[in-house]
Amino acid sequence: MSRSNAGAAVWLESVSKSYPGKPPVQALREVSQAFRVGTFTAIMGPSGSGKSTLLQCAAGLDRPQRGRVWLGDTDLTRLSEQKRTILRRQRIGFVFQQFNLMSALTVTQNVELPLRLNGTAIDDRLIDAALRQVGLAEFAHRRPAELSGGQQQRVAVARAVVTQPEVMFADEPTGALDLRSGREVLEIFRATVDESGQTIIMVTHDPQVASHADAVLFLADGRIVRTLPASPAEAIAAELTRITGPAVR
Ligand SMILES: Nc1ncnc2c1ncn2[C@@H]1O[C@H](COP(=O)(O)OP(=O)(O)OP(=O)(O)O)[C@@H](O)[C@H]1O
Predict the structure, then answer these.
(1) pTM for the structure as a whole
(2) C-beta 84 within 6 A of ligand 1
């Protein structure tokens, strides 16, 4: 089959995913979406609309029942579990809400970890460059417990970018951070996209966070129902209210 969407970092083609149950839960319904190289996309939508499922299918962590998911020229849906694991290590970076750092390891050792898992030779200059990128070069020998939450998340970002992945996926990356630390992480994301041509796909509930992205996708009931270009937080919040109904808080 020929690809009509060459140039996309990630491309979903009619992706459907359901979870078993009585009745089964239809989490994604025929979702088609291209994420262009060098763009920063936010995914929003009400709770249960399918955001995490979309992220997991796009990142090859989960496999849809129907449709295709491409990472560059690779069809992830055709790969075995083992090949997807190797591909994730080599070509994808992840940042989660809860940092997921190894507490016994230093900052440097945490950032080195993906290279070790890949069997890549450890190049100190690469580690140093990743730590500089997140403004933490002078914290290289500390352990996570000796850092603030914002600094820990910046270590997680350094760990995600050190392999120079084609795509970085982030699931609520600022959810556990105060406003200022959250903004610092988002500024690093922005710079990584603008200066290194990184592609970032991020799930968030927060319109302020989404306002740093180049585009915002809105999911409802397993479908992409709206796409906004880069927009101020107020416009994103208004769109979310239109889709979700007024906020309860
Ligand atoms: N492992 C699972 N087994 C069964 N149902 C699941 C599973 N994971 C998710 N679901 C269901 O699939 C639907 C989509 O879930 P998903 O986690 O993708 O939504 P979400 O938009 O990320 O939600 P939230 O904002 O609350 O994290 C929901 O109805 C959810 O209950």
Answers:
(1) 0.94
(2) no
